[in-house]
Amino acid sequence: MCYWPGYLTISPYNKVIKVTFSIVDYSNYFSCNPESDKLNLVLSGNIPDDILTTNSYILVPIQASRATADYVGTTVVVVDLSNIIEPGVSSPVFASSYYLVTYTVNEDGSDSISGETSITLNDNDYQNTNFSLAGEYRTFFELDYSNNQINLILLGDLPEDVLYNTEFALLTVTATRNGAEANGNTVIVITLPGEQCTIGSNFTICSRFSYYSKFIVL
Questions:
Q1: Same domain, 73 and 109
Q2: Which residue of 19, 128, 151, 218 is surrounded by the most CB atoms within 10 Å?
C-alpha cells in the first residue's frame, strides 16, 4: 500500500484528510509516489517476460481511501506495452549473405536443384523465427524446416522460356522474430541452364528433353 506522506486538502470541504492509496493489481511491479497534488506511478520491479510478450497493455487500478469514508475512490492507469522489445530477443542473422544453387534439367526430364540449398541461422533459433520467400519465381519454390535447418525445395518445373533465356533467378529469404529490432535477409542465387547443349560424335543436342531434341549434324 502507498500512504500519503502528509495531508491533502479536499475541496469543497476545506478540511485536512489523510488519504491512503493502494495499487490493486501488479503491486509487485509498481508503487505510487504522492507529490503535492498529484500521484506518480513508479516502476519498482521488472515485469515478467510472459506478461510483456502476451499483452499490448495492462491495467493498473489504484484505490484511494480514508478512515472516515464509507467508499473508496478508484482510478485505472493504462500502461502501454506495444513498444516493448523483448529482453534477450536477438535479431536473426543468416550464416551467409547469399547462397548459390544450381538448377538442373536431368536426362529423364525431371528438374532438380543442388548446391547450397540448406539455409542456416547463426544462433540456430528456428523455433522462434518466421521465414518468408520473395522473388519473381517464388511460387516454384518453398522453404521447409527439417534437421535444424531451412531447406529450399523445388515445387514445380520452371517454364522453358525462363530456363533457357535467363541466366539466373534470385530469391530473397527474410527471417523475422517477435520483439527483435531488425529482420534478417539473405539471397539465393539460382543458376539456370541457359542453352545447354550435349555434343555427340556426329550430332549436337540443344533442348530441354532428349526426346524433344533438335539434332544438328556436325
A1: no
A2: 19
